[in-house]
Write a structure and sequence with these properties.
Layout (H helix, E strand, L loop, with lengths): L5 E4 L8 E5 L1 H8 L10 E3 L5 E3 L4 H12 L5 E5 L20 E3 H9 L7 H10 L3 E5 L7 E4 L9 E5 L3 E5 L7 H13 L4 E6 L3 E6 L5 H11 L4
Parallel strand pairs: 5-7, 6-8
Antiparallel strand pairs: 1-2, 3-4, 7-8, 9-10, 10-12, 11-12
Helix pairs in contact: 2-4, 3-4, 5-6
Length: 227
């Protein structure tokens, strides 16, 4: 990067915010049919010092560059081939979602899922750039993250080691049957609920006890109508 070209950020190193991207060289190289490789996770500030973007910085760079180029889509390739209803390494019934809204993906990321960092999703939402997550190791269809809300259904079940589970899906606050089913499972398993927070797109429940994965499995099966 030099004084004319690059990803310009504020002065907050290790967690810098992108302020502007000069795409002139990128466009020039693309017009010459060249493959452009851009270093992610970093930028430069007004003093030409190198800054870093912090956790999820490479994803943030990719979406920001896509937005600056007014790209049709931004593809994120990693070791997972999309967004799943819950952790497929723990729950056998987990399955990949075809589409998730920006709002739902931000909630999922904020709860600790490692598919995408919420900052990259915020940029995608702001500039209306659909983000498509795919695997580096296969060509299976991924998950499309965009502003299109296909339906008001539950999209994800996330477990955190702080004895909190979150159920995410647009319009969940109006699905009283699912809320009742969830509370019934907690009651049958004699779990002590300390706090329940319900918003338009998320139910978060804090419990006194650490949640066993078997209980999480029961909740997942009930919410996604497997039992």
């Amino acid at each position: 990067m030099d004084g004319k070209h690059g990803i310009f950020t504020n002065d907050t190193n290790q967690n810098a915010i992108i302020e502007n991207i000069d795409t002139s060289r990128i466009v020039k190289e693309l017009e010459e049919k060249k493959i452009v490789i851009i270093a992610g996770f970093q930028g430069i500030n007004k003093n030409m010092d190198i800054t870093t973007l912090g956790r999820g910085g490479s994803d943030t760079t990719a979406v920001a560059v896509a937005a600056a180029l007014n790209a049709k889509n931004c593809y994120i390739f990693s070791d997972v081939d999309g967004v799943y209803t819950t952790d497929p390494n723990k729950i056998d019934g987990a399955y990949k979602l075809h589409a998730v809204s920006y709002n739902e993906m931000k909630e999922i990321s904020n709860e600790g899922a490692k598919v995408l960092h919420n900052r990259s999703v915020e940029i995608g939402e702001k500039f209306k750039i659909p983000i498509i997550t795919k695997s580096t190791f296969n060509n299976k269809p991924g998950t499309v993250i965009s502003d299109i809300i296909e339906e008001n259904t539950i999209k994800s079940l996330v477990k955190k080691d702080v004895s909190r589970i979150s159920i995410i899906g647009n319009g969940i606050i109006r699905d009283m049957n699912k809320i009742k089913e969830l509370l019934d499972i907690l009651d049958k398993n004699k779990l002590n609920v300390l706090e329940i927070n319900i918003s338009e797109s998320k139910i978060s429940i804090v419990l006194k006890d650490i949640i066993d994965d078997n209980v999480l499995n029961k909740i997942h099966e009930k919410l996604f109508n497997k039992i």
